[in-house]
Structure formats: C-alpha cells, structure tokens
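lol ok so funny story. i was supposed to be doing the assay writeup but got distracted and ended up predicting the structure for this chain instead. priorities right. anyway since i did it might as well share w the group, maybe its usefull for someone
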Amino acid sequence: MVRFITSFFFLVSLGLFFSVYISPEYFPYVGLITLTIPLLLVINAFLFFALLFSKRKLVILPLIALILGWKFVGVTVQVRPVPENPEGLSVLSYNVHMFSYSRNGEDRSTVGQNLIKWLKENPSDIKCFQEFYQDVTTPSRNTIKQLGTEEGYHYSYQIIQGNPRRRSFGMVIFSRYPIVNEGVVLDSRSTNGIIFADIKVEKDTIRIYNAHLESMNIPSEQLNNLDGIKDNYKKTLGRLKRGQVARASQLEVLLEHMENSPYENILVGDFNDVPYSYTYFTLRSKMNNAFEKAGRGFGFTYNKVLFFLRIDNIFYDENIDIQHFKTHREVDYSDHYPISAVFKLNQSQAQDNQGLED
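and the output, tada:
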C-alpha cells in the first residue's frame, strides 16, 4: 500500500508540475487542477520524511518530486528582510474596482474618496490602474484631474466603455516623467484590455505595460459566499474554463507585442491567474517576477473570500534591477490590494536607449 500511495502521488505530481506549460487552449481545465500543487508539495514532504525515518528506498520518489517542484515554493512564499529606504523608479499597480468597492454597508462614495486620497498621497513615479472610472461631470469623481493633472502627472487613458466627455471606464497609466508614446495592445470592449506607454526617465526610456486579462466572470455575490460557489459550481467551472482559454489567447497577443518593443519592459496588472498557471509560467520564462525577486510573505492580492489568491503581478525584463516589492494589504478599498515595486535602471539600458534616439 505504501508503494502504491507513494508512486501515485509521485506520478500525479510530475503531471501537474509540467502541466503549467500546457496552454488551456489545448487543455481547458489545466488551470484548475494546478491549484492543487501546494497540497501535493505538502504531501510529498510528508512522504519524504516518513520514508526517510523508516529507511525505505521509496524515499527517492518524493525527493525527486520535491526537487522538481521546488520552483513552486518560490512562487508561493518568500522570506527576506525589508530593505531600508529603497531608491529608484517606483511603480504602483492597482485594480481600483471603479472606486466603488464597499463591504458591511459602508457608503460607496466614502470608500471612493478615501481611495482617491490614498492614491494622491502615494508617491510612486508611475501608477497603473485597472477598472478605472472617470466622470467629467462630477468634480469629486473626475479622477483623471484629481490623480493626474492636479498632481503633475502625465497620463495615458484608454477608454473601454463610455463617453470621454461624460462618464467612462477603462485603464490608465500615470507618470511623473514624460510619456513619449502610447498605444493599445488589446481592446476586448468588455472590462479587460492591455495598454502601454513609453516613458522618458531622465536618459532612459522604458515601456510600461498595464494589463487586465480576462476575468473569471463570477458574480461578486458568489465570490463573497462559499455556498454561492458550491450551489453554482457548474456555471462557475464553465466561467473558469472560458477565462483560462481567453487569457491564453490574450497572452499570445501581449508576448508578440513585447517582443517587438524597442525598450526594456515593465509589465504590471491584474492577470486573473494564480502563480501555478500557464499565464504566470509563460511570463516567468521570459521576465522576472517582482514578488519572487524582492517580495516577502505570500503576497496575496485578492480581497474577497478566496483571500489566498495572488493574481496581481509586476514582471520586468532582465536588464532592469529591482530594489523592493510590496503588497499593500493595509489598503482595503477594493476587491484587490495594490502592489508596488522600486526599480533601478542600469547603465547598459541608458546606453541602448541613447543609441535608439541617435
């Protein structure tokens, strides 16, 4: 029986560890089964120590599984000291939920104003927001003016829905530094999209991507209630499946665009995918992840009943150095927590950009 159990979990572990490299376009439910990877790591660790103390040769199987699965430990949790006064280019990413998130009967307008106040006081050089709401007709909700022009920020705003002269919804990049170019990578005309801005930072120029990949499209009342998820599990699975496939398609568009970028890239946003997904590992194979390189703890970014999800990320190219990463779990104004990072642009980056401009 011990041999069967050990062999079973070994084979299942191998299959799941490599499944993160399989696109959901070919295997739609692959992103759902990979959620069990942390549990498998725990099981293999238990089997390893049990077999080690009993001096069974079978110990080699969970040992191999733990070695192959070690990369998942790093994407799950980080242990490192907090740096003192990190200096460099600071970048903030936040899904602001249209500035209207509320819980426990709290007034939505109060939440929105508190959130705007926090964002104004945040000193980040670059601020990227998803699910951004703009109302030109109401001064208290004219967020472009409050967070941008009044604070001395340049901005690139892509409207997904609405009227630019009245009320609109979309994605935005604010920058203390000049924006020399901007554009749209993906416009889904729903609630998602990808935009970019080329930002002149002293002698450097970098490209910032702000992404909001396909949502799970599960009604918020279900996500706030486990019973709601159970009662509607068939619809929930269907939505999760469609979201997985859509994100894989959107990822292809994004990767092609980034490959043609003339500058070093920083990619931020709400990816609606966990670290054990095809989306995450595909990006991880091409870029560094800020949480893995400079974060600490678990870095959970979802502010609902499924609190153990990290679906907001900051990725960056190899030629950029990271100084610090933080998940702002003290900021409870949205269904996501904001994340931020501090970067240092190296000399080779400056020289490359100078060559492009010459």
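The chain has two domains: 2-76, 89-357. The radius of gyration is 22 Å.
back to the writeup now i swear
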